[in-house]
Each structure stands twice: as structure tokens, then as C-alpha cells.
Amino acid sequence: MTNTDLADTDLADTDLADTELTDDGRATTGRAATGVAATGVGDTGTGTVAVPQTELLRVEGLGLSFPRPGGGRRVRVLDDVDLSVRAGELVGVIGETGSGKTTLARAIAGLGAPDAGRVLLDGVDISRLRGRAQRDFRRSGALQFVFQDPLRALDPDLTIGASIAEGLAITGTGTRASRAEQVSDALRRVGLDPAVADRLPAQISGGQRQRASIARAVIGRPRLLLCDEPVSALDASNRNHILRLLDGLRRQLEVGIVLISHDLSSLAGIADRVVVLYRGRVVEDGPIADVFSRPQHPYTALLIASAPSVRRQDRLDPASLRPAAGADPGADSDSDGAARRSAGGCVFAHRCRFATHACAETPPRRAVAGRPAGEWAAACHHVETWRDQVTGSTAILKESSA
Amino acid sequence: MPEPGTGRGDQLLTVDGVRVAIGGGRTEAVHGVSFEVRRGEAVGIVGESGSGKTLVCRSVLGVLAPGCAVTAGTIDFAGTSLVGLPRRAWEQLRGTRISAVFQDPASYLNPSQTVGHQLAEQLRVKVGKPRREARTAAVALFDAMGLHEPERVYHQYPHELSGGMLQRVVLAIAVSGEPELLVADEATTALDVTIQAEVLELLGRLRRERGLAVLAVSHDLAVIAELCDRVLVFYAGELVETGPTAEVLDSPRHPYTEALLRVASVGDWDRRTPDVIDGEPPPVGAEIRGCRFADRCDFAAPQCRSGPVPLTEQAPDRAVRCVRASEIALSGAGAIGAGAAV
Ligand SMILES: Nc1ncnc2c1ncn2[C@@H]1O[C@H](COP(=O)(O)OP(=O)(O)OP(=O)(O)O)[C@@H](O)[C@H]1O
Ligand SMILES: Nc1ncnc2c1ncn2[C@@H]1O[C@H](COP(=O)(O)OP(=O)(O)O)[C@@H](O)[C@H]1O
Ligand code: SF4
Ligand code: SF4
Ligand SMILES: [Mg+2]
Ligand SMILES: [Mg+2]
To answer: Where is each ABC transporter domain found (chain A) (predicted)?
Structure first.
């Protein structure tokens, strides 16, 4: 519901103006279209791919708050958030409802007023662009959004083709015929039959609609794609189709992707790195294989243990990571995050089994022992010791890190 | 934790040859589905979007949308025939002996009344508790649903509660009449994964403590695996495989079940790429001569398309709709423990 209120129509409508696209785009598309939906593309595997080292996006110390409805102290929704994405890299942002994922994506796109920090795209702070500079940046189409509900990007009264071409048409790029050609290419690129261009959004399935909205987002060759829960409304098979598509696109187009999800398993196998957000703070971030096999933060461990699975051997009982019954009567695991957040202290303390008096101070984000700064970090006072207190099968916690 | 059903012959719900038509009766979307749910048993329906899971649930609950109808078959609930049951008889049944929870709890609550009031009303009207007693019972039930500070929750309005809390409220209302059967259609799909785990545990506890039978629906086999004793795999309006959950996961017999296993959440964090099922299910109402899965099946052979493929019983409680079931080798999910982490 919040998402609908936050609709940024201006963003969805402004984009797509890369004059060099026609030649360039068609050439690459021809090569790519065969691979996207086929097995080939994804098979490269995350661990083995050499990710380009050029940093595309750097978010530094981002803070953002909203006025409280009844007045009084503002509600802090993002606090000291760091994030970096390289060209062609796929970074997962995981967090529960209300943890600030959408607010973060919007802030990166310059929608929303951060009260601290910077958002650098190619070294330029884009979070505070105003007026003409902002308009020019949006027109450049360097940054695109993909939403959970594809209907937000696709006008119900326009054909799929018209929606995809909209941005190109607005800025008058190319002739009608060349635009139609680009739309066909974009549709093929996302694994859709170009004939879909003549249909209305209501006439195709949810999974196909999400592909179409991705085609719309990539037709102008963006540098950064912000995907806000793009698969949450899809069934398991369609979910994986879209994830593979995104994985293929970042390789073919060298586009940096921020993939927001509340579901860890959506990130397995495709993300390079993961950032775990809890109540507006980054509690852990690092290479996905490391984070998944040896979570450093108790919340990350709880997320992993809670994921349903068709294979249950060695699985940690999530109950062994929750506070013992009656230990903290104030703990309400799913009450609204920002509203009940106490000032200071570890954001996760109210749900943490391992909380001590020390946790009344906000834990700093520290590099994991033996890892260079910036590679893998967690914000917990008891990183070294909480694991020892877990009983039961702890295979996921004890696996040695590389 | 899935517990073995209390033995054959203890049927609570028997669905036999049910067909459901949509679009005012023109298009058949469910093509003769049969299964049973025994007392205290949890049975899960799994399948892709559009496979007919919700239509079957709604048929069982007698709440099909206008234009949709059961056109053939019978549904028996503890001796009462549910197809065509008069409205008055439904009133006696729904909310007390059969109840339901869905994906979007908020839409089943009245936004202008406190959640406590709504539960107390249910206890008053359906269970016949006096007003004051209903109030006390409501608070106790909220507490039993794992809601902290139930007294405070009692006085809150739906919009003040998170999705997970709302689903607990709806569950409290659903079980307030001590039903024998709970239908849960994607009841945890919209929840955060940590909350989903808690609600699945809660459902497991309700089964143990109240002997509640559950008919659960999910498009994710992993969720069904956590909750259910037996699983029903739906494809394009048909039941294509059924069996005890652990057996089906370990050794699927239908190629579609194997495909669902590949796309399910596996908790396998160094998996290379997310798997997909190529192609699309046939459109609803498509006239298909043979196996409805043939266009997407790696094992499809001429005999698959020559005529209707029957659901064949392989062992008690185990059936599969595939002409090549005995000659193809499929892989399962690996070692599966009998119990979920509840
Ligand atoms: N009220 C309705 N009117 C018309 N068609 C309907 C109606 N309800 C369902 N259908 C159609 O019947 C088929 C089966 O729908 P159903 O809702 O049972 O699927 P499902 O398995 O529950 O899917 P999902 O996982 O998306 O919930 C679909 O093709 C759907 O479009
Ligand atoms: N425009 C707004 N005004 C006030 N509060 C907001 C606004 N947008 C978001 N919030 C609050 O900020 C928090 C984070 O929201 P959001 O970024 O949408 O989280 P997520 O996307 O992770 O679910 C929530 O508590 C939400 O209610
Ligand atoms: S700092 Fe304390 S409360 Fe926070 S996660 Fe670590 S142990 Fe738990
Ligand atoms: S009957 Fe044939 S096409 Fe159908 S699932 Fe079996 S092998 Fe595949
Ligand atoms: Mg969001
Ligand atoms: Mg459904």
C-alpha cells in the first residue's frame, strides 16, 4: 500500500533517450536475444564471473527521515546506509517489510530528501540534483526502475509496444519504424515474442507483464537498474525466469543492478553481493556465498534459518535464534519497524536472542576478521560469540569461510 | 510438524470428480479433481499460477465467484454434501466447522472495527459466548496466536497492525469456532520470511493442540513441504501426482513435480542459477487430447498425446498421471527429514 502512495509517476515517465541506441542497441540485441531465456546465459555462475571493477554507484552514509504524522520527532527510516555497485554487478538488498528498501531505492533515484550522506553515480552526487540538472539527468535514462507490480510501469490503456516505446517517442528518438524495431529487439531481449507488442497489459500473464516492464526499463540502455521486489508477486517458476533474465541483462548490457527482495532465496545463484537491511540500517553486507554460508549477524542467520526448503537436513531451527519465550515481553517480532524503534542501541535488539547490556549502544559496522575493509562487514557487538550460544543443528553457522 | 494422518477411513473431506467452470459455465478450468483430507491431517495443493488451486478451495468453501460453478462431482464434508448446499446450511458450517485464511488478511477484516471486537463478535455469534466471556476468550485466543500484549492488540484497528499480526488475527477468528478443517490459500505468501516461518509453526501447533485438519495451498513446494503430510500436485486444472510429502519430494514420479522441485526454494545457497520451467501452461479451457503437460515435458513421447492420461494409483495414497511414470528416472530433492523445524 505504501508503495502505491509513493508512486513516482514522473520517474516512470521520464527516461530513455540514448541517441546512439539504434545501431548499438540492435547489434547487441541480435546477439543477446537468443540467450536470455535459454539456459546458456545464467550458467556462468556468480562465483566464476569476473565483475568489472569500475564503480558505478556509491551510496555513502545515507540518512533519511519522515515527519511523524502527529508531529514530534521525525521517524528515521534510513540510517548511515552504505552501498556500492559496479558496472555489470548485481547487488541484492534484503530486508523485511518496512525496513526501508523502497525508500532507499527512491533516494538513490533522487526521489526523497536525504538528510545525510551522498549518492554518487559515476562520481557525481545525484541525490540533490534540482531543476534543470535533475531533468537532464532523468532524460539521460541512466537510471531506471522496475517495480513489484509491472502495471505501474505499463499503462493499462496502451499496448505493450506503445508503453515500451513511450520514452523513446517522448524525446523524439528515431523514426516510427526504427522505434518499432527497437521495441521488437527489447521484447526479444527479455524473452518475449515481439507479437506481444500489440497486446494490452491485461491480455498477458503476470510473468510476461514483468518482462515487458523490464523491456521498457532497458530499451534506453540504462547504466543502473533499480529493481524493487520485481518477483514478489510471481510464482516460483516465473520468479526464476525473471531472475535469470536480470542476471543475463547485467552481463550483456553491463548494467549495474540493485535487486531488492524480501526473500533470500531469490538472490541465491544470481547476486554477487548482498546487503542486509534491518530497520533502516545495514546490519551485514558481503559476498553472497560468504553471507549465506556463514552469516555474521544474528538477523541474517534468522533469515536463512526461516527460509522454507524442500531439503531440510542440517537446517537450523529458527526458534533457536529467537528470544526464548517470555524473555522479552516487549519484543514484537512483526510490529511496525520505524514506529516502535527506540532511540539508540542495536536495531535488532528487540528480537535478538543474544542481546546484552552492551547492545544498548549502536554496534559499529566492522569488517569480518581476516577480510579486507569493504568486503564483508557486520554490525553486531557479539559477532565472535553469539554462535556459541546456539543449540541444535548449527551446520549453517559452523561451515568454515574460505 | 507433519504428523501421520490418523489412518485411512477417517475422512473428513472427500472431493470426488469435481469440475469447475468459469466464464458463466463456458470454460472448464478444473477437470475432475478427486482427493480426501482425513481428520487432523494437513494436505497441501501445489502448482503454478492458474492451475486451479484457488478454484478448488473456493469450491470446498462454497464461495466461488459469480460466473464460476461446480459442474460435476461431489464434495462431502463429514457426511454433509457441500455442492449446492443451501445458504442457511452453509451459515451453520462456515466459521464453525470449516474456516479459511487467505493471502490478504486485511481484506477479510472490517477496517472500522477493532480486531478484538471482530473476534469477540465471532465468538458471540458463532460460538454463542456471552458478551463478557467472549471478550476474555478473545484476548486469550490472541495470546494463543502468539500476539504479544494481546490486551493492547484487542483495541487496535486493522490498519495499525503489520501483515504478520493481521494474519494471526484472522487465524484467531478462523479457529475461534473450533473448526475441524482450515483452508489456507497462500496464507503465508505475502509475509516476510521470518514471519512466514512463525505462522507455519503456529499452524503446526494448532494442528497438534486442536486436531485441526488443514488444506493448504502454495505455489512454492517448499512451503507445502514445511507444513503438510500429503501433497497434491496440480497442473492446468488436473491432479497430476499425489502422495505423502516426504515420498513425493524424495522420488517424484511425474515430470512436472520434478520441475516444481527444481524451482522451489531449496535453501541451497551456492546454487548456480535459479531453475525455470520452460514454456507456459496451456490456456484455461484448451482442448488437449493427451497429457496436458506434454508441450513442456522432456519425456514426451507419441503415446503421451494419443488419449487422456488417467491418474493411476501406484500404492495406497500414491498416484500419478503419466503414461511413462514407470519407465522414466526422475530426481528428488535429496534426503528429506520427516519433520519440519517446528
Ligand atoms: N472469477 C473468475 N472468473 C474467471 N476466471 C477465473 C476466475 N477465477 C479463476 N479463474 C481462472 O481459472 C483458472 C484457475 O484459477 P485459480 O485462481 O484457481 O488459480 P490458482 O492455481 O489459485 O493460481 P494462483 O497461484 O495465481 O493463485 C485461471 O486461469 C483463472 O484465470
Ligand atoms: N512518504 C512517507 N511518509 C512517511 N513514512 C514513510 C514514507 N515512505 C515510507 N515511510 C515509512 O518508512 C519505512 C520504510 O518504508 P519502505 O522504504 O517502504 O520499506 P520497504 O520497502 O522495505 O518495505 C516504513 O515504516 C514506512 O511506513
Ligand atoms: S549487537 Fe547485540 S542485539 Fe544487536 S545483533 Fe548483536 S548481539 Fe544482537
Ligand atoms: S504423460 Fe508423457 S508428456 Fe505427460 S508427463 Fe508423462 S512423459 Fe511427460
Ligand atoms: Mg517496498
Ligand atoms: Mg490462487
So the answer is: 57-304
CA A116 to chain centroid, in Å, comes to: 21
A381 lines ligand 3 (CB under 6 A): yes
Residue A321: CB partners within 8 Å, gap ≥ 6?
A298, A301, A302, A305, A353, A390
Q: Output the domain CATH number for residue A275.
A: 3.40.50.300
Cross-chain Cβ contact A310/B148 below 8 Å = no
Q: Which atom of ligand 4 is nearest to the CA of B297?
A: 8
Q: What is the ipTM of this complex?
A: 0.86
Give the residue among B29, B78, B38 at the shortest CA–CA distance from B58. B29
pLDDT in tens, B289-326: 999 999 999 999 999 999 999 999 999 999 999 999 99
Closest CA to A92 of B194, B162, B274: B274
Do B230 and A273 meet the contact criterion of CB atoms below 8 Å apart? Answer: no
pTM here is 0.85
A131-188 pLDDT, tens digit per residue, is 888 888 888 889 999 988 888 888 999 999 999 998 676 666 678 888 899 999 999 9
C-alpha cell at A312: 531440510
What's the number of domains chain A is made of? 1
Does residue A45 belong to any structural domain of this protein? Answer: yes
The domain defined by B11-97+180-337 folds into Rossmann fold (3.40.50)
Three-state DSSP class for residue B328: coil
Place of cell 473476534: B119
Note whether A237 contacts B337, CB cutoff 8 Å: no
Residue A37 to residue B279: CA distance in whole angstroms: 10
For ligand 4, mutation pick of B296, B298, B299, B314 (most atoms within 8 Å of CB) = B299
Residue A382 counted as domain residue: no
Query: Which DSSP letter does residue B171 get?
Result: H
- Residue B270 is nearest to which of A42, A289, A309, comparing CB atoms? A289
Backbone angles phi, psi at A97, to 5 degrees: -55, 135
The answer, yes or no, to whether residue B7 has pLDDT greater than 70, is: no
Domain that holds residue A166: 15-19+26-298
Any domain includes A324: no
Taking CA atoms, A189 is separated from A32, A39, A202, A249, B54, in Å, by 6, 14, 21, 8, 33
DSSP B151: H
**Residue ranges per domain, chain B?**
11-97+180-337, 112-178
Q: Is A335 close to B162, i.e. CB distance below 8 A?
A: yes
Tell me, letter by letter, the H, E, C secondary structure of chain A.
Answer: CHHHHCCCHHHHHCCCCCCCHHHHHHHHHHHHHCCCCCHHHHCCCCCCCCCCCCEEEEEEEEEEEECCCCCCCCEEEEEEEEEEEECCCEEEEECCCCCCHHHHHHHHCCCCCCCEEEEEECCEECCCCCHHHHHHHHHHCCEEEECCCHHHCCCCCCCHHHHHHHHHHHCCCCCHHHHHHHHHHHHHHCCCCHHHHHCCHHHCCHHHHHHHHHHHHHCCCCCEEEEECCCCCCCHHHHHHHHHHHHHHHHHHCCEEEEEECCHHHCCCCCCEEEEEECCEEEEEEEHHHHHHCCCCHHHHHHHHHCCCCCCCCCCCHHHHCCCCCCCCCCCCCCCHHHHCCCCCCCCHHHCCCCCHHHHCCCCCEECCCCCCCCCEECCCCCCCHHHHCCCCCHHHHCCCC
* Mean pLDDT over each residue of chain A, to the nearest integer: 79
For A368, other C-beta atoms within 10 Å of its C-beta total 18
CA-CA distance, B284 to B54, in Å (whole number)? 14
- At residue B268, what is the residue type? D
Reported as a single tens digit per residue, the pLDDT across A335-353 is 444 334 455 799 999 999 9
Cell 522441485 found at: B261
Residue A141 lies in a domain: yes
